[in-house]
């Protein structure tokens, strides 16, 4: 690990932009600082740069949870645009764990062929295909956000306790056997994921979904070994990542997405996130994807450019690589986050919804056109960038 981020930032702006567009510390004798377009190796996977596509639900499946043409077009374009890591949306490990009836799933074999197509297309475009595995818990059985309300027909929701999230139906508190079954479901989905070609697996424990519900005192009031203090509330996350790590090959990186804070009094805190990171690192988690919020509508979020980066920086202090997310809109901000050692990579969401070629445009803006290749099929549109000839090979037929 590099020195603490606070040391790297001393004199940042006043030292002539030491972490700005150069990625080189001008202080005499200093080693080069990380660059947004440097590769990043996690276990047996090397990302071509430090830019990834964050998981974003698309809500466009049928009730069978199978990938669609929309998913292929959405994810493939971001891979062609230069992202190093392309993560699927939250992919349900059980049918009951879907947020909406339109969620992607990997709880059964019938969903495998579609995922194999997604993974192979992303890889053929030069990016690393990754999958986020999730269970919505008490936030399941909803309509898409542009419709609002509960799904019709819906299904029974479950959670650590029978506490309803604001405006939603109360879940049924899970029996211990159901907790064990949930871990088994994450493991089964992870095995399918690597079998179809995903090279990175992320466990979703953020944004108020099931694993986060166990972490937060605002949603977990259990009195058994799955609740109470820190050790009990973090048990499901720890056991899930340990089981998934054991189930996937040693060269496959395991990521964990967390909300570093609930932004609400009495909720999960950044300090607890740091301690959780310390505990999951020896269990085989290779990078923590640091987001925030989602457990309560009473959250008070200080929105602004890079507003979640301080949380990522704090978690990185636990000695584990992290990804920063949240309103990272400009190439300059993304570069400074990486070069200052606040995070090891950035995952972009809204910015890449608007511009699938954000990484390519960033390479132009930062003077890194020698660091990012483009498919030769697009050479006439990006004549100032080097071509990546391997993507000229035929893609799988439709």
Give an overview of the whole structure.
By secondary structure, the chain is an alpha/beta fold. It has a single domain, classed as Alpha-Beta Barrel (TIM Barrel). Helix content is 29%, strand content 13%. The protein has 12 helices and 12 strands. The strands form 3 sheets. It has an 8-stranded parallel beta barrel with strand order 3-4-5-8-9-10-11-12, surrounded by 6 helices. A two-stranded antiparallel ribbon has the order 1-2. Strands 6-7 form a two-stranded parallel ribbon. Strand 10 (287-291), helix 9 and strand 11 form a beta-alpha-beta unit. Helix 8 (270-280) crosses helix 9 (309-316). The N and C termini lie far apart (44 Å). The relative contact order is 0.15. Mean pLDDT is 90; it is low at 1-28.
């Amino acid at each position: 690990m590099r020195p603490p981020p606070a040391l790297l930032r001393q004199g940042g702006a006043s030292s002539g932009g030491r972490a700005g567009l150069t990625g080189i510390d001008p202080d005499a004798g200093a080693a080069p600082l990380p660059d947004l377009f440097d590769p990043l190796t996690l276990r047996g996977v090397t990302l071509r740069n430090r830019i990834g596509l964050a998981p974003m639900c698309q809500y466009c499946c049928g009730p069978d949870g199978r990938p669609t043409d929309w998913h292929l077009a959405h994810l493939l374009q971001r891979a062609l645009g230069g992202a190093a890591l392309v993560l699927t949306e939250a992919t349900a490990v059980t049918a009951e764990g879907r947020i909406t009836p339109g969620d992607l799933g990997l709880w059964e074999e019938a969903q495998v062929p579609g995922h194999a197509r997604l993974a192979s297309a992303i890889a053929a475009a030069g990016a690393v295909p990754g999958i986020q595995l999730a269970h919505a818990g008490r936030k399941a059985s909803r309509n898409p956000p542009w419709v609002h309300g509960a799904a019709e027909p819906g299904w029974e929701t479950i959670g650590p306790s029978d506490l309803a999230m604001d405006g939603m139906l109360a879940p049924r508190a899970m029996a211990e056997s159901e907790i064990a079954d949930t871990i088994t479901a994450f493991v089964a989905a992870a095995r399918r994921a690597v079998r179809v070609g995903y090279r990175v697996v992320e466990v979703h424990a953020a944004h108020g979904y099931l694993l986060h519900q166990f972490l937060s005192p605002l949603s977990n009031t259990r009195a058994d070994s799955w609740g109470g203090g820190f050790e009990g509330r973090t048990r499901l996350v720890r056991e899930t990542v340990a089981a998934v790590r054991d189930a996937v090959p040693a060269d496959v990186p395991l990521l964990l997405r967390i909300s570093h804070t609930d932004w609400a009094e009495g909720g999960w805190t950044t300090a607890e996130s740091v301690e959780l990171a310390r505990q999951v690192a020896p269990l085989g988690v290779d990078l923590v994807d640091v987001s925030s919020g989602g457990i309560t509508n009473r959250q008070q979020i200080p929105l602004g450019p890079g507003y979640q980066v301080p949380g990522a920086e704090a978690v990185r202090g636990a000695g584990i690589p992290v990804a920063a997310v949240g309103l990272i809109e400009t190439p300059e901000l993304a570069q400074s986050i990486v070069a200052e050692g606040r995070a090891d990579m950035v995952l972009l969401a809204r910015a890449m919804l608007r511009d699938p070629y954000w990484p390519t445009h960033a390479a132009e803006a930062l003077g890194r056109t020698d660091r990012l290749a483009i498919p030769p099929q697009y050479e006439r549109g990006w004549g100032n960038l080097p071509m990546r000839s391997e993507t000229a090979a035929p893609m799988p037929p439709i």
